[in-house]
From TrEMBL:
Belongs to the tRNA(His) guanylyltransferase family. Residues 138-254 form the Thg1 C-terminal domain. Homotetramer. Interacts with MFN1 and MFN2; functions as a guanyl-nucleotide exchange factor/GEF for MFN2 and also probably MFN1. It is an enzyme of class 2 (transferase). The chain holds residues 118 to 386 of 386 of the full protein. Its cofactor is Mg(2+). Adds a GMP to the 5'-end of tRNA(His) after transcription and RNase P cleavage. This step is essential for proper recognition of the tRNA and for the fidelity of protein synthesis. Also functions as a guanyl-nucleotide exchange factor/GEF for the MFN1 and MFN2 mitofusins thereby regulating mitochondrial fusion. By regulating both mitochondrial dynamics and bioenergetic function, it contributes to cell survival following oxidative stress. Residues 6-135 form the tRNAHis guanylyltransferase catalytic domain. Keywords: GTP-binding, Magnesium, Metal-binding, Nucleotide-binding, Nucleotidyltransferase, Transferase, tRNA processing. The lineage of its organism: Eukaryota, Metazoa, Chordata, Craniata, Vertebrata. This is Probable tRNA(His) guanylyltransferase. GO terms for molecular function: GTP binding; magnesium ion binding; tRNA guanylyltransferase activity.
Length: 269
């Protein structure tokens, strides 16, 4: 078919192909979730409903999109790691990012009621996205370590901050002043001596965030079959092996996780 004289406008499209053989990360982050959390009465500092909903959305993204090997989430953000050799949409960054962000946002609305039974969704949430390309296994591991370290630092701070406010009735300004210049050890000490809280016993989901990896899951379903010649159906159990994104709340900074799951980063060539 002859091309129209307008075809040349394609030349104005920017090339955003992700560098070959590199890990592609899409990180999504809730837009203005400080306000969103307030308006929807999220519990402070952590709302399990909100975190579980985020994870549900991330599982949907992993299942619906191609070539995601793992994901890591905390607070209002999720990072998705695509296979080094992925050729999905010819590795165009805008395709990775916009598919992830729109699938995530629509899932957030779609699954809202499953997690927030007594809280209406008051306005449509949005998520921004960015793409970063990492050239080696060390840099992708360091990227994920950076996000988990961020989760730890913020959560330790927020846990003490909200104890000072909720239990000791300090104002936010007073709590901030009390924590100015304190190190991690000081915050652990305040939690332990003033509130009898051992930070290490706080829920792993809050301290470590959520790691999603693919695992084979055995599904047992009851199915009705009708033997030939019989009118009555009967129930039988069928077992199926399915691969699903499963949530873990473990450390991914040390080597243990990567040694236990060598398949995640295996094609390092
Ligand atoms: P942004 O990302 O620049 O559009 O603005 P924000 O407000 O989303 O800022 P960000 O992403 O740096 O911080 C996340 C906000 O979400 C932070 O203000 C606390 C809030 N948030 C996230 N998870 C929870 C939660 O479980 N409970 C509560 N109360 N707030 C949360
Ligand atoms: Mg931000
Ligand atoms: Mg945000
Ligand atoms: Mg954030
Ligand atoms: Mg189309």
């Amino acid at each position: 078919m002859a091309k129209s004289k307008f075809e040349y406008v394609r030349d104005f499209e920017a090339d955003d192909t992700c560098l070959a053989h590199c890990w592609v990360v899409v990180r999504l982050d809730g837009r203005n979730f400080h306000r969103f959390a307030e308006k929807h009465n999220f519990t402070k500092p952590n709302d399990s409903r909100a975190l579980d909903l985020m994870t549900r959305c991330a599982q949907t993204v992993m299942t619906e999109l191609e070539d995601i090997v793992m994901a890591y989430g905390q607070s209002d953000e999720y990072s998705f790691v695509f296979k080094r050799k992925s050729n999905w949409f010819r590795r165009r960054a805008s395709k990775f990012m916009t598919n992830a962000a729109s699938q995530f946002a629509s899932s957030y609305v779609f699954y809202w009621k499953d997690y927030f039974k007594d809280q209406d969704l008051l306005y449509p949430p949005a998520f921004d996205g960015r793409v970063v390309v990492y050239p080696s296994n060390q840099t992708i591991k360091d990227y994920l370590s950076w996000r988990q370290a961020d989760c730890h630092v913020n959560n330790l701070y927020n846990t003490v901050f909200w104890m000072l406010i909720q239990r000791s009735k300090l104002t936010p300004a007073q709590a901030q002043e009390r924590l100015r210049g304190t190190l991690a050890a000081d915050k652990n000490e305040i939690l332990f001596s003033e509130y009898n809280i051992n930070y290490n016993n706080e829920p792993p989901m809050f301290r470590k965030g959520t790691v999603l990896i693919w695992k084979k899951i055995k599904e047992i379903k009851s199915k009705e079959i009708k033997p030939p010649g019989e009118t009555e159906g009967k129930q039988v159990e069928v077992t199926r092996i399915r691969t699903k994104p499963v949530a873990l709340h473990c450390d991914i900074i040390g080597d243990t996780f990567w040694k236990e799951h060598p398949e995640i980063l295996e094609d390092d060539s």
